[in-house]
Amino acid sequence: MNPRERLPAQLKPLASHNWEAITIGESKASVWRIAMGESALFLKAEPAHDLSEMADELLRLDYLAEMGFPAPRVVDHVSAGDFNWLLMTAVKGNDLTHLGGEPEVLIQVLADGLKRLHALDPANCPFDHNLDRRLADAEANVLAGRIDETDFDDERDGWTGRQVLDWLVENRPAETNRVVTHGDACLPNILAADGRFSGIVDCARLGVSDRWQDLALACRSLEFNGGKEHVEDFLTAYGAEFDAERYAYYCAMDEMF
Hints:
It is a single chain. The protein contains eight helices and ten strands. The chain is an alpha+beta fold and 257 residues long. It has two domains: 3-89, 2-Layer Sandwich (Phosphorylase Kinase, domain 1); 94-254, Aminoglycoside 3'-phosphotransferase, Chain: A, domain 2, CATH 3.90.1200.10. The strands form three sheets. The protein has a five-stranded antiparallel sheet, covered by helices on one side. The chain has a three-stranded antiparallel sheet with strand order 6-8-9, covered by helices on one side. Strand 4 (74-80) and strand 5 form a beta hairpin. Helix 4 (131-143) runs antiparallel to helix 5 (161-170) and helix 6 (212-225) packs across helix 8 (244-254). The model has no long low-confidence stretch (mean pLDDT 94).
């Protein structure tokens, strides 16, 4: 898609600035960094449909702003034609994939960031991501044909979305230690500046869930980006022990979104 041709009227002044496409991560939305002098804004465009996550992200960014938690702040939101548009401020720093050469720093920042997020009071978070809710959302995605079955992890290579959903229903674990989770706590969504945690991005799936919703995806992302040997050090820094059951479950759940 050519963003300049599709920009709604309210956002057309952005077309005269320099745009940089953000391709890291696996978001289904298109994201650009737009230079604004010495600072920048980020613009996200997502096709409009019943299962779009942008409305969810707007609410969660407002919640994080109210909590004073470091994350993008909403500048503007426009629904026009076939797309929803979200203009946001930048978060200081770079995503954790930039710390691949400093694994000890990366591990500590990831642990610190998730501990800080998980320390928020879940009683004040209006987004309940219990398994009943997540499984219902997963089924809606299956029925809408929005599951990318070509991108499943090796453990589920060749499965259908319905087979993954059936496995999730049959193998759901007990929900314990429910906290405010990011929902997609992979390295591209956690930021650091000067070797310290500086914020989170891509927050559409934030909600109260078992802490292994985040720990599982963080461990998987660490293994993919840096090596399996870093997982134990991360969990030690966070203060948890590896839970094979919940790790497998929440990685499988991620196939649905």
